[in-house]
Amino acid sequence: MSLGREPGLPFLPGCAFRDAMKTSFHRPQTLGYKNGFAFSRLPAVGIGRERLYVNQLSQAELDDLSNQRPTLTYGPAKRAPPSGFIPAHVAFDKKILKFDAYFQEDVPLSAEEHYRIRQVAIYYYLEDDTMSVIEPVVQNSGLPQGKLIRRHRVPKNDRGEHYHWKDLNRGMNITMYGRTYRIVDCDPFTQVFLESQGLELNPPEKMVFDPYTELRRMPVRKYITPSDFDPLKQFLTYDKQVLRFYAAWDDTNSIFGENRPYVIHFYLADDTVEVREVYKQNDGRDPFPILIKRQRLPKTFADKKKTFPSCVLEISDQEVLEWFTAKDFAVGKTITLLGRTFFIYDCDEFTRNFYRDKFGITDFQPVEIKKKSLEEVPRVIPPYNGFGVLEDSLQNCFSLFPKPPRKDIIKMLENDHKVLRYQVALESPNPEDRKRRFILSYFLSNDMISIYEPPVRNSGIIGGKYLGKTRVAKPGSTTENPTYYEPSDLTIGSTVEVFGHRFVITDADEYVLNYMESNAESFPAATLQSLRDHFRPRDIPMLQTNKQELDELIVQVQEELNHKNLNKKNIQEAFLQCDKDGSGILDKAEVLALCDSLGVPTNTILLNKLIDLCSCGEDKINYHDFLRAFPS
Fold first, then answer.
1. Could you tell me which of 359, 140, 133 has the C-alpha nearest to residue 243?
2. Stretch 112-117: mean pLDDT, rounded?
3. Which residues pair with 340 in a beta bridge?
4. 482 pLDDT exceeds 80?
5. Higher pLDDT, 481 or 72
6. Spatial CA neighbour of 342 closest among 363, 323, 319, 369
7. Which pLDDT belongs to residue 449?
8. Distances (CA, A) of 198 to 42, 191, 230, 480
């Protein structure tokens, strides 16, 4: 219950009394709200809505009295409790830093502006260190304006840091999400706050405005002085008068280019130009005569932009300083029309009279057009890669779609199933390979060679086809001038090199000799003679010698040699080793030398007669009949 007192009595014990009529004892409100902000105010009335006098003490005086109260009477003064903790969202509530900025944006698809300046306001909220970027909305701008960056903590770098108000200042660039903003100024509250925190601000800059927007605001006034040229008079004077020039466009320097003739028409009525193509019969071109339709052609541009879309838009009078006129055409000179250069080599009679009367030109000597001779490019055949037949691979260099090489059909029909067979031995440093015998077949129909090895039991070598049918080139043959083996090269004792392997011809069929004798004019005499010498020694002894007589002589020699101590097995092995080519024929001198080394008595009458009977001409001996006298 409150105590009441009279205004004139001091506020001392005994001078206060209770007001029995007082019923309200509530305290007045000292906290108010205005425009959404909370603020404190002094009470207008006291407790229970009592009147407050004007001479009451202020809060500062009351605090001073509380600190200076008498210590002896009331004891030491109690210290006021510390002020309560105020969080940042309360201390900085509704406190926002505002910066004026702009950024530049490229405009690639516009012929009137290349970049655009957009002004924005950057807001920094002190209560939670968030930022937002807002662009003022302009009506009919065609741009998505308004809030460009919503309110949130903006990342500063990739290390997880965020922008702080200490990072903001005037006259600096700030990059947010790939877009760079230029801060030029700030509001007074922002300036006071940053300076109170000890941050030195840069001097403000002027705001940059969009040049295209400023240009649109300026009134465009163009004053064009009317020309004294009367186009109607030109039309009435030169109507249906056309200058004709004969020109050529030389495009031979480019791929598939050529030197093509054209006709250039210049219409004097309106200074327009037309270019027509000249077509010839069966030239392979579509009948489209107009190369450049009738129009005015620019000669000099004011400022021709090569950017899109200026490079594809129509040409107006403001972009051209000078147009082509009749004085720009002359015989013997070149002229460039829309990027294509034409050489004028002649004109018609009306054009000559016009230039003679108008410009006083009398030299109209036509220029003879000489066609450039096409340079013959030498055809270079790539080297043979080893795959397939040489003739088949060569066809890929002659045409895009290769065709099989042409064959001699007459030769194939005449020589069908005609094969020359030879017995060959492999020439090798390996002793086991020397004993191998092969059958070489030469096919006369297509000049191909095949090699077959007859299987020999218990030899350790698998016989069969050694080489398929193919054409074999001679040693030293080149891909530019290949030479292949022919029947004339296959003689008895000659060497045939087949893909690095050397074969020696030791025997042949009698059909080979008969075929060559029937076609003797097609073969060299040396080849034919070698076959005759090979077959004659085998036939002559058998014709001249009686087989019964030879058998009786061999029996007599065996009876005489039985009394001799001779190693008959060594004699046969010695003769076989001397016969390296396996022909069965040895020189007589070699036979006598072998008999002396092996202890065979050659001075007896029977042995000498046996050697003579085994002779096959030209001091050659068929030692197979001779060895019959030495059975193992």
1. 359
2. 91
3. 337
4. yes
5. 481
6. 369
7. 93
8. 34, 11, 77, 93
Q: What share of the chain is helix, strand, coil (3-state, %, to 5)?
A: 25, 25, 45
pLDDT of residue 2 exceeding 50:
no
Q: How many domains does the chain have?
A: 5
Same domain, 499 and 451: yes
- 124 lies in the same domain as 27: no
Listed in sequence order, the residues at least 6 apart from 94 whose beta carbon sits closer than 8 Å to its beta carbon are: 36, 37, 127
What span, in angstroms and rounded, lies between the C-alpha atoms of 624 and 572?
9
- Assess whether 93 and 213 both reside in one domain: yes
Q: Is residue 277 part of a domain?
A: yes
CATH of the domain at 484: 2.30.29.170
| Strand boundaries in 281-333, DSSP class E | 290-295, 298-301, 320-323
Q: Are 235 and 345 within one domain?
A: yes
**0.90 exceeded by pTM:** no
Is residue 275 within 8 Å of residue 245, measured between CB atoms?
Answer: no
Rounded Cα–Cα distance for residues 533 and 18 (Å): 172
Determine the Cα–Cα distance for residues 605 and 224; give it in Å rounded to an integer. Answer: 142
Secondary structure class of 272 (helix, strand, coil): strand
Residues 207, 238 within the same domain:
no
**Residue 470 backbone dihedrals phi, psi, to 5 degrees:** -160, 160
Q: What whole-number percentage of the chain has pLDDT above 70? A: 87
Rounded distance, CA 326 to CA 357, Å? 13
Q: Decide if 225 is inside a domain.
A: no
Res 566: pLDDT: 65
Q: How many CB atoms lie within 10 A of CB 165?
A: 17
Quote the domain boundaries for residue 59: 3-74
Mean pLDDT check: name the lowest of 257-261, 337-341, 373-377.
Answer: 373-377
CA 372 to chain centre: 35
Better-scored residue on pLDDT, 539 or 40: 40
The CATH number that applies at residue 549 is 1.10.238
Q: What is the pLDDT of residues 526-570, one digit of tens each?
A: 888 888 888 865 444 444 445 667 777 777 777 776 666 666 667
